[in-house]
Amino acid sequence: MCICLSCFAYISLIPLVLGNYHKDLKHVLDSYEENPDCVFNYTQVNSTTIKFFPQCEMVYAIIVINSDTDLSGAEIKAALKNMNTLVGGIRVENSNLTNGLFIENNSYLTDASMLSNIRLYPGNSPVDCVIRVEDNQLLDMEKLCDEGWLAESTDLTTTGNLKNCVYPLFTRIKIVTVKLVAKVHAFCSNTIGEHFYSVTYNGIQVLNGSHLSNIKLIKGRINIQDTNLQNLSFLESFQFWTVRSANSIILNLQNNPEMTRFLLPTVRYIENNAPSGITLANFENLHPDFCLSVSEMIYLVDLRLPFVNLHSKFCEDPGDIGELVLCRFTSMYDLPNNCDIVLGDLRIEKEDEDDCTKLNKMRYLFGSLIIENTELTDLENLYACQHIVSLNDSYPVIQYISNKKLKNLELPYIYSIITRGKREAVVQDNDLFKAELGNQSCQLFPSNNEEYNEYKTGLKYTGGDCGKYTFLTNMKIFFSFRCSCGYQTDFYYQFSLFINFSNRVYIIHF
Ligand SMILES: *[C@@H]1O[C@H](CO)[C@@H](O)[C@H](O)[C@H]1NC(C)=O
Ligand SMILES: *[C@@H]1O[C@H](CO)[C@@H](O)[C@H](O)[C@H]1NC(C)=O
Ligand SMILES: *[C@@H]1O[C@H](CO)[C@@H](O)[C@H](O)[C@H]1NC(C)=O
Ligand SMILES: *[C@@H]1O[C@H](CO)[C@@H](O)[C@H](O)[C@H]1NC(C)=O
Ligand SMILES: *[C@@H]1O[C@H](CO)[C@@H](O)[C@H](O)[C@H]1NC(C)=O
Ligand SMILES: *[C@@H]1O[C@H](CO)[C@@H](O)[C@H](O)[C@H]1NC(C)=O
Ligand SMILES: *[C@@H]1O[C@H](CO)[C@@H](O)[C@H](O)[C@H]1NC(C)=O
Ligand SMILES: *[C@@H]1O[C@H](CO)[C@@H](O)[C@H](O)[C@H]1NC(C)=O
Ligand SMILES: *[C@@H]1O[C@H](CO)[C@@H](O)[C@H](O)[C@H]1NC(C)=O
After folding, report:
1. Is residue 121 within 8 Å of 274, Cβ to Cβ?
2. Per DSSP, which regions of 116-239 are E strands?
3. Count of CB atoms within 10 A of residue 400's CB?
4. At a CB cut-off of 8 Å and minimum separation 6, what does 462 contact?
5. Residues 6 or more apart in contact with residue 92 via CB below 8 angstroms
6. Cα 249–251–257 angle (5° rounding)?
7. Global pTM value
8. Residue 319 to residues 104, 296, 298, 312, Cα–Cα distance (Å)
């Protein structure tokens, strides 16, 4: 699903096929509850109906512009001038609609500058919205490519126009999928033009090293699925990564039974063009020996890339961790001072209290956290901790049990808690904490961005101390809108919810 802000009118230049949208319109109208004056109750934009187009900022409509539209682009644009948000949809294509914005074969089109005002959100779709501008003989796209939202698009294709987009600095690649019959589509472009390399093979031999090993910039996600690849070292020149992800998996390693190592070259950061989104990774069903070195794990968590699943263990060899102090946990007593990284389940028990200052610098805990039967009153010694990664699902990632004096369980600087899959915490028999908490739900970790919390710091709490976990109450729901973009989905029935809860606004796409 894609959502579109500021959809304006030049789109009437696109030839369209008439469809039947009464049902879709009804669906939109059934859903609105805000302002009946801003509903455009027609499925067709023409000289009769345009007079009734509401002059509202937010309009509820399905706007169909097609061969029966007896209006010029300028006339439509004038009628839509006050609208900046559309709840509903726009039909703008001449072929199947579900896949994005297509501007094709318009012999008279010379100005597509409206494209830089259009913003397509892919919602929770794993891929970006497709934008194709093709075969418009008089259209110069060259300057537009770096403007507005177009510059951020990770799936923009321009061919056959007077001038097309060029990417002089980088090779641009899109690895679409490496699927059952491992298929790599490398869509590369350079100053000369665009070439399409498509190789089909079963396994790693697919990769035409002479191309993939040169790739510096990847726009879009990396999805390596159902292959015999052993690792990702073939992307040896990889340096820059741009994605658009509200909350989608941008690094997916799935069902690769021979994959034992990660070995992706390091990129410094991931440029995410979604306004307030997060990026996710998923490592699932790889070789049973698949392991990440401590340095790779640090690289991944520092990229702020939470995991949906992380079917991995830690390699014996920690890799290059620079100046960081790595401590393997056996007991609090034996733990050295000044650990930056603790590897192993961190267990703090009776009589360990005084040793807790050894944890004052711990930034990464690569194991679960168990605090049991202590006299601790708070967890201040753990305040440096930013990431907890626990790779064994057979016990909870956090256990706070029978700490009779423990009143404050906060760990205020945690950014992510990563597990193999299950996300569980047990909080039990900490009487002071329980008394302090009353009937409220546990909120042990920061959750500034609650809409994405389920993969960051959100846990399922059990044990007697945490009141029933409650999330949204008092919610006020209204529908957002979407535009002509979707990905193999029935897009007319997909919506976003804006939920306004205690002055915090959540946006949920489904
Ligand atoms: C839209 O038009 C249909 C058919 O003319 C009518 O039944 C429906 O009540 C109208 N809805 C609104 C919100 O005006
Ligand atoms: C405009 O569309 C409406 C509704 O589809 C239709 O009833 C009307 O005849 C059309 N007018 C013109 C001028 O095509
Ligand atoms: C449109 O979609 C249908 C069903 O998904 C498909 O069979 C058809 O080939 C598509 N047509 C075009 C022009 O892409
Ligand atoms: C544009 O039209 C030509 C001629 O009909 C056709 O061959 C070409 O595929 C069209 N391009 C697109 C992008 O639809
Ligand atoms: C790899 O790419 C080079 C350069 O384009 C080409 O000459 C060669 O045939 C390709 N190899 C395979 C196996 O496709
Ligand atoms: C990575 O994969 C390549 C094959 O693509 C293999 O030759 C190499 O040994 C692998 N490296 C490791 C450390 O497994
Ligand atoms: C997980 O922990 C259980 C219980 O301590 C242990 O038996 C099991 O081997 C561990 N699994 C892994 C993958 O380390
Ligand atoms: C907490 O919940 C219990 C049982 O639901 C109820 O009896 C009690 O009054 C509640 N306490 C507060 C402070 O709301
Ligand atoms: C959310 O609700 C509050 C109170 O009901 C209101 O003041 C605020 O403007 C709303 N925010 C949005 C974005 O609708």
Report:
1. yes
2. 119-121, 131-134, 156-159, 172-173, 183-189, 194-200, 217-219, 222-225
3. 28
4. 396, 424, 425, 426, 427
5. 11, 14, 16, 65, 101, 102, 484
6. 115
7. 0.56
8. 51, 8, 10, 16
Cβ of 134 less than 6 Å from ligand 4:
yes
The mean of the pLDDT values for the chain is: 70
How many other CB atoms sit within 10 Å of the CB of residue 151?
14
Q: How high is the pLDDT of residue 284?
A: 96
Residues in the chain: 510
**pLDDT over 90 at 285, yes or no:** yes
Closest protein CA for atom 10 of ligand 4: 105
pLDDT of residue 505: 37
Work out the average pLDDT over 371-397.
94
Gyration radius of the chain over CA positions? 27
* Pairing mode of beta strands 119-121, 3-5: antiparallel
To which residue do tokens 């040896």 refer? Answer: 236
Q: Flag whether pLDDT at 325 surpasses 80.
A: yes
Q: State the first-to-last Cα distance of the chain, in angstroms, to the nearest integer.
A: 8
Q: Which residue has the higher pLDDT, 204 or 248?
A: 248
Copy the structure tokens of residue 493. Answer: 């029935």
Domain 326-462 architecture = Alpha-Beta Horseshoe (3.80)
Closest protein CA for atom 2 of ligand 9: 503
Question: Which residue type, as a one-letter code, is found at position 491?
Answer: F
Q: How far is the CA of 251 from the centre of ligand 2 (A)?
A: 49
State what percent of residues in the chain have pLDDT above 70. Answer: 59
Ligand nearest to the CA of 43: 2
Residue 431 DSSP class: H
Across 341-357, average pLDDT: 95
Domain boundaries, the chain: 3-159, 217-314, 326-462, 477-507
SS3 category, 73: helix
Ligand 6: which atom is nearest the Cα of residue 234? 5
Which ligand is located closest to the Cα atom of residue 96?
Answer: 3
To test the ligand 4 pocket, which listed residue (92, 104, 138) has its Cβ within 8 A of the most ligand atoms?
104
- Taking the C-alpha atoms of residue 217 and residue 198, their distance in angstroms, rounded to an integer, is 18
Of ligand 7's listed atoms, the one at least distance from the Cα of 393 is: 1
